[in-house]
Each structure stands twice: as structure tokens, then as C-alpha cells.
Amino acid sequence: MKNIPKGFLFTGIRCGISARKDKNDLALFYSGQPCITAAVFTKNLFKAAPILVSREHLKSSSKNIHAIIANSGCANACTGKQGMIDAKEMCSLTAQNLKIKPQQVLVASTGVIGRLLPMNTMRNGIKIISKKILQSSSDSSLEAVKAIMTTDTFPKLASTNFKFQISQPKAGPLQAENASIWGCAKGSGMIHPDMATMLAFIFTDVNISKNLLALALKTAADETFNCISVDGDTSTNDTVFLLSNAQAQNKIINSEKSREFEIFSTELTKVCRELAKKIVRDGEGATKFVIIKVNSAKNKNEAKQIAKTIATSPLVKTAIFGCDPNWGRIIAAAGRSGVDFNPDKVQIHINGHCVTKNGTMTEISEKDLSKSFKQKEVEIKIDLNCGKEKFEYYTCDLTYDYVKINASYTT
Q1: pLDDT at residue number 329
Q2: Cα(first)–Cα(last) distance of the chain, in Å?
Q3: Residues in the chain with pLDDT < 70?
Q4: Residue of 359, 283, 286, 284 lying closest to 327 (CA atoms)
Q5: Hey, CA dihedral for 143, 148, 150, 155, is it positive or negative?
Q6: Per-residue confidence (pLDDT) for residue 67, from 0 to 100
Q7: What is the DSSP letter of 64?
Q8: Which of 75, 108, 294, 317 could cross-link 70 (Cys pair, CB 3.0–4.6 Å)?
Q9: What DSSP element (H or E) covers 156?
Q10: pTM of the model
């Protein structure tokens, strides 16, 4: 797999947690060098045990993280004291096998809420996967990504290479393609801000300070993972980890105003946006990817609020699925968003067709509009004509299959 940052190893196995006998369900992400780490977690009040344990470890060891152990098939959420014990044991067993400290391991789980982990199975699986990663001689990153999938229909990966100016004592400054960011994510249901609406693990070899790593992740997440919605539900396990082992040769980035930080932030946001879009494209039962653009708003928050309201409207999402040219649902959603704007100045385009101008309908053919909805990608653009700010949001249609998938998720 291209662009894996220097010093990282990833792998996955079938442990036996998932009911699907053909599916990997245990993943391990590892760096022999300690990593500084930033994270964002769900704002759901019911936080799963892995989140609580990982937060503890980040408080004491955020500059010395070596590994993430993650499973699918069981969320280990709402499992009380036993869930905490099990999450901590996952870390301690991983640490024991990798010869590091338990606090240097992060843990994540995804799957059904309210079920205990099968720890006998987990113990054996962690022993096997730890041995496998230490003996690894080839790239197994795809196996790791497959191991965190649940209702996902395809693995979600994104990566980038970019250049920094590095310094060589004898030869002087040299431009080299020496830095990488690689990320993976899982998610197709229970997708909605805030934060982070899925599991995502991102790795980089860039040498950067802990504070700026955290700032870059927060900025990237706000512009990507917090701009997507599949069904309006936020999970108990939503987590994004960003690890840097500083193995690139760049001089440490410790200024927010530096050109190097700007480059890193841009590249990180690019990776996060690609992962976010893939999550929406894989929305449970989805047949269409929907881009909502709100332009010429008074401020970015208002633009986001309007876009978010449209993106989460079941009436808008079902109309797009059914190719129903009922653009009135879009206007209604914008109007109830809580944002104060002048309806008489609004102009709306759907796939390039102007459906309303100055708050009044146009002579667009409903037949042509319905036909345009048959495209795999639908763009809704709203011009408020009351300012200079804009915002972009991603969602998908709401289909019969979404109901089928979630009506029988645990059975």
C-alpha cells in the first residue's frame, strides 16, 4: 500500500469475534518508535469503555504511544465495570506481547452495543496478531482495514506524500519527498457530527509538536468528519486517532504560522476529506452521494447550519432517492434551519438546474430535474446573497435498504 509513513506496521486477522466467518475482526497498528498522539472522540454522553481507557492513556502517555489495538463485531459499550476491565486487558495483553507499557497502547472497538467482548477469543487473537506484526516482512495494511469494518461494503483508505525542506549537515538544505500521511476509516451507519462519527486511524512520520498536531487534527476534523451525515445518529464509540512517530527528516514544526505547518495541515485535511467522502459514499443502503454547498452567507457557522439541516432532512434524502423533483423540501429545510436570511434573495441550483431565483420558482422542467437525480452524484447549491462565507457538506440518499440493514442489525 502506497505512502505508508516510515516506521509503521499494520495488520489484521480473523479472531472469532464477528459472526461472519469470512471476516477479519482484529487489527493492530504499530510503530517501533514512540508517537505523539492527538485524538477526537464522540460527544455522545454514553461513551464506550475503549474511549474511556484510551483517554486515560493519552493523559499520561500522549507522547509515547506505540500501538492501537482495535476490533469489530462488538462495541464494548454500555458494558459497565466489566467493559472497562476488558478494554484495559486488551491494552495490557498487547503491551505484554509487544514489550511496551499498557499506557502506550490505545484501544478501539466497533459493533453491537451492550455486549461483552469474548475475552478468551480476544486473548488468543492478540497473541497471534502481535506475533504476526513483529515478524511482518510485507505490507498487511489492507488486512488491518478490513478488520475494523462492520456494515462497510469496501475498505476506506487515503494517503499522501509531500515535501519539506530538510537539512543535511554536510550537503546543506535539500528538497526531498520525505513526508507521508496515511489513514483508514470505517463507517457507513450511525454517521453524524459531533465528533467524530466513525473510527478513523491516521498516521504520519512528520516531526511536529504535540500542540500543533492536535490543532491540525481539530481543524481537519471540523472541515471534514464534522461535515458529513448519513442518518443523523452519532455512535458511542466514535474516535479519530492521529499518530506521529517523527521519522521524517524535517526540522520539528513548532510554529502555527510556519509554511511547514500550513503544508502539513493542508495535506492532513486532504486525507481526512477523502476518508469522509468515502464514508458517505458507503452510507448504509445509499445509492447517491450528495454535495450541499451553501454560498454567500453572513458567516461560516450559519452556512454550515443550513447545509446540515438540508443534509439531515429525511424528506430531502428520500426525494433524492426516488428522483422526485420536489425541491420545495430543500427550501423548507433551509427555512427551518434557525438561520436568519432574506428568502427573496435566495437562489437554488440542483445539478446545475436553477429551481428558484430571488425566492421564486423558475420554469425548470420537473422531468429534466427528475432525470438529473438519476446521477450517482447530486449537487445542491444554495446562494443566500447576504455575505461572503460558504460551507460544503456531504450526505447520501435514504433508501429502502437502509431500513432493511438497520431493522435486522443484531439478528
Answers
A1: 92
A2: 35
A3: 1-2, 165-177, 188-197, 230-235, 408-411
A4: 359
A5: negative
A6: 98
A7: S
A8: 108
A9: strand 156-168
A10: 0.86
Is residue 354 within 8 A of residue 379, CB to CB? The reply is no
Positions marked active-site: 197
Cell of 98: 509487544
Q: Given this model, what pLDDT does residue 370 score? A: 87
* 171 CB-side CA count, 13 A: 8
Question: DSSP state, 5?
Answer: P
* Residue 11, φ and ψ in degrees, nearest 5: -155, 165
- Gap between the Cα atoms of 261 and 179, Å rounded: 13
Which residue type does 173 have? P
Compute the distance between CA of residue 186 and CA of residue 1 in angstroms, rounded to an integer: 17
Bridge partners of 47, per DSSP, are: none
Q: How much is the pLDDT for 191?
A: 47
- Tell which CATH architecture fits domain 8-281: 4-Layer Sandwich (3.60)
CB-based burial label for 385 (10 Å; 0-12, 13-18, 19+): middle
Instruction: Judge whether 231 and 191 are in contact, CB under 8 Å.
Output: yes
Q: CB neighbours (10 Å) of residue 37? A: 26
Closest Cα partner for 184 from 77, 311, 28, 308?
28
Radius of gyration from C-alpha coordinates of the chain: 23
Per-residue 3-state assignment (H helix, E strand, C coil) for 228-261? EECCCCCCCCCEEEEEECCCCCECCECCCCCHHH
**Would you say 57 and 105 are in contact if contact means Cβ atoms under 8 Å apart?**
yes
Q: What is the pLDDT of residue 212?
A: 98
Residue ranges of the domains in the chain? 8-281, 289-407
Residue 190: left if φ>0, alpha if ψ -120 to 50, beta else—which one?
left
For helices 328-335 and 314-321, what crossing angle results, to 10°?
160
The CATH H-level superfamily of 289-407 is ArgJ beta chain, C-terminal domain (3.10.20.340)
Q: Is 204 helix (H, G, I), strand (E, B) or coil?
A: strand
Contact in structure between 310 and 338 (CB atoms under 8 Å):
no
Spatial CA neighbour of 205 closest among 241, 250, 175, 165: 250
- Kindly give the residue spans of alpha helices, DSSP state H, lying in 243-374: 259-281, 300-311, 314-321, 328-335, 366-372
Which residue from 230, 257, 262 is spatially nearest to 399, judged by alpha carbons? 230
What's the rounded Cα separation, in Å, for the pair 163 and 175? Answer: 7
